[in-house]
């Protein structure tokens, strides 16, 4: 009988249930459910609708049951850094605020006197991003100190969903590292740091590695969805899952996990927490098997997603890509400029940047999309050169995984700007990586090497030469 495994992969703009099973050594996948995700304003704060997302999780589970494809195990991954605080009755305290909200503005000024940024990086290896959990918790401490006082538990978003399914609380390691409160040496919470910042220590849950069996459905969930299922922790940080599915066993594989963000980097055995690495804004995120993802966050397709929305979805991503390739102007923006993080209008933000820097201002949709795609590719080129300097390695290929691997024009530009052969695919890398951890936990795949070989054997990869 076929054994199905289920990945629930929720990104900043959509979520999906993907069932996977093995056929003659290859992975076969089937999408069972897809749903919208996005931020909505509540009490002036940009929030995720976690209740609705949990409803969608259950709808997708019911669809699997209806199709007679009941998974033997499942795991959930989402974007990083966001969390909930639970009170003694397991109720969420306050709004479920998303990382693009303004509440973290200026919070670095409150963290800095407690611990200088250089020292913070030396201790955690995590790149400064104003939306990291460390700064979000400072915002809660400032604006809603009662929430921190009443809190009994802090759970990252996927940990929270998995708690709702199983009644078991845990902090999955890969996502925990994005709080900037975990030590890359001990791979555990840095309680000394947590105490220095005045965050209550007891809310931090035990850290569990991907592959850990969290539990099975609660009686209530079992009744509602109609079956029971084991919940196995994947790399719950979506980027952690995506990088697991880079189809290469080469020691020096360079990748971009391309989605709402472009995460560009390599995998390493040790974290680099040096001052040079900090100045270049590289991060050392925790990965499967205690490997590190040494990478840089680049603003990514969020810029195109925002533009598409502002154009009232008149064009598909494929059309925007195609239009951009037809009509280009030479202007470039710095994708990592903070003005692009959550602008009221991406169009105006891009135009404003070009105007301020004396460049031609894009007006038509094709020009705007062109400036964004070419600026991203330009940023990838610079980042590769920085990675090569930091690691002392020259890379031949660049793997592009995730939804962005579909953007043919961007892939071509990327090959040109980096001078690397671009290997694009798989596009569903995050769900695949999630499934791979379950398959390894179940002993179907021996180890990470076997998992990556399986990805290589199972999915199409497109090649773009520089
Ligand atoms: C990508 C991602 C990224 C984080 C950001 C918050 O979805 O998880 O790795 O930096 O969202």
Automatic annotation (TrEMBL):
The keyword Glycoprotein does not apply. Residues 254-441 form the Carbohydrate kinase FGGY C-terminal domain. CDD domains: ASKHA_NBD_FGGY_RhaB-like. Its EC number is 2.7.1.5. Keywords: ATP-binding, Disulfide bond, Kinase, Nucleotide-binding, Rhamnose metabolism, Transferase. It holds the Pfam family FGGY_N. PANTHER family: L-RHAMNULOKINASE, SUGAR KINASE. Belongs to the FGGY kinase family. This is Rhamnulokinase. It comes from Blautia hominis.
């Amino acid at each position: 009988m076929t054994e199905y495994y289920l990945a629930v992969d929720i990104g900043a703009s959509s979520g999906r249930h993907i069932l996977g099973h093995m056929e003659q050594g290859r992975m076969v996948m089937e999408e069972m459910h897809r749903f919208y995700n996005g931020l909505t304003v509540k009490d002036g704060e940009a929030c995720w609708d976690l209740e609705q997302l949990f409803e969608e999780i259950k709808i997708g589970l019911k669809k699997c049951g209806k199709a007679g494809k009941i998974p033997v195990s499942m795991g959930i991954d989402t974007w990083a850094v966001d969390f909930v605080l639970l009170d003694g009755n397991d109720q969420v305290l306050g709004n479920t605020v998303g990382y693009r909200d303004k509440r973290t503005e200026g919070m670095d000024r409150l963290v800095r006197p407690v611990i200088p940024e250089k020292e913070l990086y030396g201790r955690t290896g995590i790149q400064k991003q104003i939306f990291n959990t460390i700064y979000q918790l400072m915002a809660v401490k400032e604006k809603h100190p009662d929430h921190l006082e009443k809190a009994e538990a802090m759970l990252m978003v996927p940990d929270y969903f998995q708690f709702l399914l199983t009644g078991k609380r845990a902090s999955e390691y890969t996502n925990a590292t994005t709080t900037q409160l975990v030590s890359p040496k001990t791979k555990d919470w840095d309680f000394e740091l947590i105490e220095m910042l005045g965050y209550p220590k007891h809310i931090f849950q035990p850290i569990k590695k991907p592959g850990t069996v969290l539990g099975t459905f609660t009686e209530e969930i079992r009744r509602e969805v109609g079956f029971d299922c084991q919940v196995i922790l994947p790399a719950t940080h979506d980027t952690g899952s995506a990088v697991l599915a880079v189809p290469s066993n080469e020691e020096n594989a360079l990748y971009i996990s391309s989605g709402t963000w472009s995460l560009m980097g390599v995998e390493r055995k040790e974290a680099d927490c040096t001052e040079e690495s900090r100045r270049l804004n590289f991060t050392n995120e925790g990965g499967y098997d205690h490997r590190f993802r040494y990478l840089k966050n680049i603003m990514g397709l969020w810029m195109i997603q925002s533009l598409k929305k502002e154009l009232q979805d008149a064009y598909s991503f494929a059309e925007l890509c195609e239009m951009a390739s037809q009509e280009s102007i030479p202007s470039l923006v710095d994708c990592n400029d903070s003005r692009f993080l959550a602008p009221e209008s991406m169009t105006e933000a891009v135009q404003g940047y070009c105007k301020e820097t004396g460049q031609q201002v894009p007006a038509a949709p094709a020009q705007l999309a062109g400036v964004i795609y070419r600026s991203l590719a330009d940023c990838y080129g610079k980042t590769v050169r920085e990675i090569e300097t930091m690691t002392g390695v020259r890379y031949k290929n660049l793997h592009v995984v995730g939804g962005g691997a579909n953007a043919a024009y961007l892939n071509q530009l990327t090959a040109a700007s980096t001078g690397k052969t671009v290997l694009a695919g798989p596009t569903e890398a995050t769900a695949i990586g999630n499934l791979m951890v379950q398959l390894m936990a179940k002993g179907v795949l021996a180890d990470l090497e076997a998992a990556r070989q399986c990805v290589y054997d199972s999915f199409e990869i497109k090649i773009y030469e520089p």
